[in-house]
Specification:
166 residues; alpha+beta; four-stranded antiparallel beta sheet; three-stranded antiparallel beta sheet; 7 strands; 31% helix; globular
Length: 166
């Protein structure tokens, strides 16, 4: 049942996005793809296109120098908690997020997140956008609502809201 709801939500997101433009998207020339290989432009957790969901993109740099780049905080939380990275926490060197305003990458631990705004979410009904500057996050919040959080708070909120875990 959950997968059916999720797939319906994703289909609606793509249909809406095809006609209205997707807020999360950037042109290929404006995105930095960190991971390598044939599937480097796709999220390793769900397969979604990273350019289409770049403003919600997160990445993990592992200590061996490799990267895994995700379309969303949802996919990062899923991999870190339940999947590929769940038993590799000690191998994570850095977590990176894209600033939704500038589309530049930054240390996720230093970002200001707005969770649950009126803007579309990626892989979740609850939106999650990160900003380098607190003032940018507050400006976004004023325009689109949502709650200001740190990375750790946003991670925990995603785990609770999207996965039903505390």
């Amino acid at each position: 049942m959950t997968k059916t709801i999720f797939l319906t939500f994703m289909l609606c997101s793509f249909v809406f996005g095809a006609h209205q433009g997707i807020f999360q998207s950037v042109p290929k020339k404006d995105a930095v793809i960190l991971q390598k290989g044939d599937q480097k432009e796709s999220c390793p957790a769900c397969g979604m296109n990273l350019f289409q969901f770049y403003k919600t993109s997160h990445a993990v740099k592992l200590k061996d120098g490799t990267y895994r780049q995700y379309c969303s905080l949802y996919c990062l939380v899923d991999e870190m908690t339940f999947e590929y990275l769940s038993d590799k926490q000690d191998q994570i060197e850095e977590i990176i997020v894209v600033d939704a305003k500038t589309t530049k990458q930054l240390d996720a631990k230093k970002a200001f997140y707005i969770i649950g705004s009126k803007m579309p979410g990626t892989m979740s009904i609850q939106s999650k956008y990160a900003f380098k500057e607190k003032s940018d996050a507050l400006e976004f919040q004023k325009k689109y609502s949502g709650k200001l959080m740190s990375f750790d708070e946003a991670f925990k909120a995603t785990l609770k809201h999207d996965f039903g875990r505390d």
